[in-house]
Amino acid sequence: MNPTAIFSKTGKGVQEASGKTSNLSRADRAVLKEIDGKTALGAIAGRFEKIPADKFAALIQQFDKDGYIREVSSGVTAPQAPPPKAAPPPASDGDDEMDFTQAIKLPPKAAPAAPAAPKPPTVDLAAASRADAERKAKEQQALDYKARAEAEAKGRAEGRGAYSMSGPKPAALFEGGRIQGEFKIEQGVLGSFDLTRALQTGGAQSSGRTIFSELTGQAVYDKGTIKITNASITAGAMNAGASLDIDANGGLSGRVVADVKTPTQTLRATLNLSGKIQDPVIRK
User: Fold this and answer.
1) Which of 68, 62, 49 minimizes the C-alpha distance to 205?
2) CA-CA distances (angstroms) from residue 39 to 72, 123, 283?
3) How many secondary structure helices (H) and strands (E) does the chain include?
4) pTM score above 0.90
5) Which helix H or strand E contains 46, and what residues bound it?
6) Using an 8 Å Cβ cutoff, are 277 and 252 in contact?
7) Which pLDDT score, from 0 to 100, does residue 153 have?
8) Among residues 152, 160, 243, which one has the least CA distance to residue 192?
9) Which helix (H) or strand (E) element contains residue 253?
10) What pLDDT does residue 99 have?
11) Which of 41, 53, 160, 161 has the smallest C-beta neighbourhood within 10 Å, fewest atoms?
12) 201-206: which pairs have CB atoms within 8 A and are 24 or more residues apart?
């Protein structure tokens, strides 16, 4: 990846970045939004320090390949030519020392040429704007977290359960608490992945959202961990059963058994869940 190259979004990229389409994951869409036709890739990379350099370069190549962006400038500037040297003063013969009229006519000595300005660095534009990039990256992370939190589970929910709490003081009650019960969510959205797309592609593609009509199941919250069992999801032509464990750090492990009915056949598959709740990994 050339860190000085500049890309701009195509029409397809503008639609994706504005939310009119949702083919990319939220994290990839955040990178796409920063490509504005003016900022070099190195500076954009500095805003996403949590993304490894090789993964960021691969993401840019995939954007270009899929038609979301196009290169508008390679960003390489030609080196400046050094200033011309001043002409030396005319040679003086021995008689000029006593010829005052000739001395008056001699032009003044040329001032020494100013040293050439040092050449600007050719790479590492991210380092030059590191402070600004870090600030913007933190702001973007805060916005992404808020958006993910709003999109994780939207809908009308109801449930019932029992809870128990114990601790040495009131402030620690929730940390040692345990809640067990049943839940039901209608007309909701799972914002982390597209379960139907994952089923149709065998887990190869899962970015997007799962819009469901009903989600039911049983859940246990125990000291920061969550265990979901007997989950049932209905989303149009798709029906799925799932079990899921979420640890205190947001790590996922679980399994989804789903089927999708098409006009010609019924697709069935078992998908394994891993990764983080903000960025789940689905494999067949």
Assistant:
1) 62
2) 11, 14, 36
3) 8, 10
4) no
5) helix 41-46
6) yes
7) 45
8) 152
9) strand 252-261
10) 46
11) 160
12) 202/269, 202/284, 203/269, 203/271, 203/272, 203/282, 203/283, 203/284, 206/280, 206/282
Which pLDDT value is given to residue 177?
Answer: 66
**Nearest C-alpha neighbor of 144 from the set 39, 57, 246, 29:** 29
Amino acid 102: pLDDT = 46
Using CB atoms within 10 Å of the CB of residue 38, give its burial: 0 to 12 exposed, 13 to 18 middle, 19+ buried: exposed
Residue spans of the chain under pLDDT 70: 75-111, 118-124, 144-156, 163, 165, 167, 169-177, 191-193, 203
Joined together, the tokens standing for residue 114 give: 């100013």
Name the 3-class secondary structure at 135.
helix
pLDDT for res 170: 67
**For residues 193 and 142, what is the distance between their CA atoms, to the nearest angstrom?**
20
Question: How far, in Å, CA of 199 to CA of 182, rounded?
Answer: 26
Q: Report yes or no: 185 and 156 within 8 Å, Cβ to Cβ.
A: yes
Overall residue count recorded for the chain in this entry: 284
* Gap between the terminal Cα atoms of the chain: 32
Q: How far apart are CA 134 and CA 53, in angstroms?
A: 16
Task: Say if residues 100 and 120 touch (Cβ distance below 8 Å).
Answer: no
Q: Which two tokens stand for residue 107?
A: 């032009």
Which residues lie closer than 8 Å to 134 by C-beta, 6 or more apart? 46, 47, 49
Instruction: Please give the DSSP secondary-structure letter assigned to residue 94.
Output: G
Buried b (16+ CB within 10 A) or exposed e, 98-112: eeeeeeeeeeeeeee
